[in-house]
Specification:
This protein is α/β, with parallel strands linked by helices and 590 residues long. It folds into 3 domains: 130 residues, 3-Layer(bba) Sandwich (Glucose Oxidase, domain 1); 110 residues, Orthogonal Bundle (Enzyme I, Chain A, domain 2), CATH 1.10.274; 234 residues, Phosphoenolpyruvate-binding domains (TIM Barrel), CATH 3.20.20.60. It is 48% helix and 14% strand. It is built from 26 helices and 17 strands. A 9-stranded mixed beta sheet has the order 1-2-9-8-4-5-6-7-3. Strand 5, helix 8 and strand 6 form a beta-alpha-beta unit. Bound molecules: phosphoenolpyruvate and magnesium ion. Phosphoenolpyruvate binds next to strand 11 and helix 21.
Amino acid sequence: MTDSKEQASCLTKKGIPVSAGIAFAPAVVIDAEDYRIPRRHLSRSDIRPELNRLRKALTDSAAEVASLRESVTQKFGRQTAAIFDMHWLYLRDRKLYNEIAETIRDQLVTAEYATSIVLRQKALVLLESADQYMAERVTDIYDIERRILHNLIGEKREDISHLNSDVVVVAHDLTPSQTAHLDNTHVKGLATDAGGRTSHSAIVARALGIPAVVGLNDVTALVSGGDELIIDGTRGVVIIKPDEAATQQYRQYERELISLGQELQSLRDLPAVTSCGTKVQLFGNIEFPQEAQACLDYGAEGIGLYRTEFLHLGSETEPSEQDHYEAYCQALEVMGDRPLIIRTLDLGADKYTQARAAAPERNPFLGCRSIRFCLQPENLPLFRRQLRALLRASAHGDIRILLPLITTLTELHQTRMVLGEVIEELDEQDIDYRHDIPLGIMVETPAAALSARMFGSECSFFSIGTNDLIQYTLAVDRANEHVASLFTAAHPALIGMIKDVIKAGKRYDIPVALCGEMASEPEFCLLLLGLGLRIFSVTPQAIPTIKKVIRASTMTHAQRVARRAMTLHTDRQIMHYLRLETRKVFPDLV
Ligand code: PEP
Ligand code: MG
């Protein structure tokens, strides 16, 4: 997916564009725990001081472990403290020093970097071990690595939520909660080794309006803290240490982007209607209630997807019923009587539960995620809290409830039962709520899409989640950069499913929206219109572009595009055709 081209010291890397815009700033390179990784590359004269730093860090780490062992022995006895013997022996072992020192000398990298390389390799060997006991020792290795890094780096933990100058954050990957904590006044751009177009960290970067490129494979190895970077989140390009020519070229792209943005902004108060008069509803997707205003500023007619799990991701403690209620009321206050479609907690997979789980799942995207997580007996109190808050807030506006990752009718029935119990409770307590609150489902698994007719008679609306629908239909991890080229909405199987879901919605006369990232991409707009989609729920920044395409289209054209696209057999042919047709109505398509 990536390629690189050396031009003097200026290096161009190509990755996956996930959040549009251009940024110019020096880099801050961080690891998974927000430790700032300083320079990675050394000159020969730096080797000796680096080895001294390493020696001191190993000695200090061993001393820390010895004192920890001492205090654990006093409190819990010798047997419990025995686990620290292994850590101590490891840290004192000359072999470990030699291996890290050799990496520093051979690869001319810093002690931090060499420590990570050596210990991660050891962890990998253990992870691949068939022996369960050995495989479990991997957490000890991570612990040892963290301790040495801590002693090398000191307290220089990067607080990316409170910065005092502009930076581009460079990381191997960011979790959705790390991304949610980014301070978007100073974080001007984001570049990561891992990730895909619809990974949740990419979605949050878009929500925060931070230009981002992911799937760069080795950007963390190429960039040192303080290097000047250009991030082009529209084209998926990162320029490391740009020369004058590259800087001029990207300043020009930036000016063009600003003027296109101004032109699009003038569409804000115009309706999303095709030039032949077909009305379309354009909604926004949000992760935080504060984004509701941005949706209106961009011209949204409602919120089609509020991802409430970010309430968990953004805080250290479990949100209370009142926290949920206040967040929903905050969004409602901005939206007035416009629709606010709130999705119940979509926790699990890459969001929240794995890091805190006692035993992480082997295959979390196919595991206890979303509605499955909420319906687990031990999680019902958390689900009830959210449903109570949703119902209480529904007394103040047009709230509709959306359920994630539905695969069976039983899940819908069970949710109705829990909702019924919560309603009974509210009735007993004389608390007001919307009695006809609509209950819809995300159609984001092949099971739901293929049985849309069955679900259509039992729920109030559909919202097609193509991010997961693509992932599960094409068997492609949405966040894995190595298979990113296979992750496409232009696959004939997917287009066929969308068509059938829209048809099922028509049959039962229920609204069908599409809230996956596909709806935010202008090249799919004609196709979706032609398939009969009338509700698009998109990233707020994409609203003006999608509106412009809709307003320039006719239904005759859109239907012809959909018919023709469905006769094509490969995603490449389909994508090429859709781009050609889109340029006829939207020549600015990048
Ligand atoms: C989807 O899967 O398309 C979707 C909108 O939900 P999320 O991206 O939050 O999984
Ligand atoms: Mg989803």
